Amino acid sequence: LKQAEATIDEMHRLLKEAMGSVRAVMSDLRPPLLDDYGLFAALESHARQFEARTGLHVAVNGEELAPRLSAEVEMALFRIAQEALTNVAKHAAASHARISVTRNAGRAVLLVEDDGHGVGTRRAANDPGPGGWGMAVMRERAEAVGGMMRIEHPGRGTRIVVEVIHDSHHSA
What we know:
Layout: H1 2-29, H2 32-37, H3 39-54, E1 57-62, H4 71-92, E2 96-104, E3 107-114, H5 122-126, H6 133-144, E4 148-152, E5 159-165
Parallel strand pairs: 1-2
Antiparallel strand pairs: 2-3, 3-5, 4-5
Helix pairs in contact: 3-4, 4-6
């Protein structure tokens, strides 16, 4: 009987651990903050979690765009920012990154930049190859919502700029 209780206790612990992992994955897939509070709030939250996990300082600038972007555009921009930060942590040897969300001439603009060593040549930044799928996926996400992505080399670091026509479809 004691062995059965120990087994049940262990199963209960494993189930709670698995449920926590599932919740974390679901939150990463579609952060509740994105639906409830919008892109800017979701990016701020992700930046704080990312900073705690990696030690890379991430500043978030801008504002919540009003009216809000469509749910698809918000999700695409959020995913692009996630991938860009992951690339910074993996490849850039940076100590700081910055995300900004602004509106400019009827466009929503997402900017992710770092102070690292840069992505190298323009060809490496724009062509998928070994380790280059992240950039290709970011570009495809931008294009899927009618946007465009460009990669800039401001001297030190890398700047990812995504522009999407700012629509007025509020996501409910």
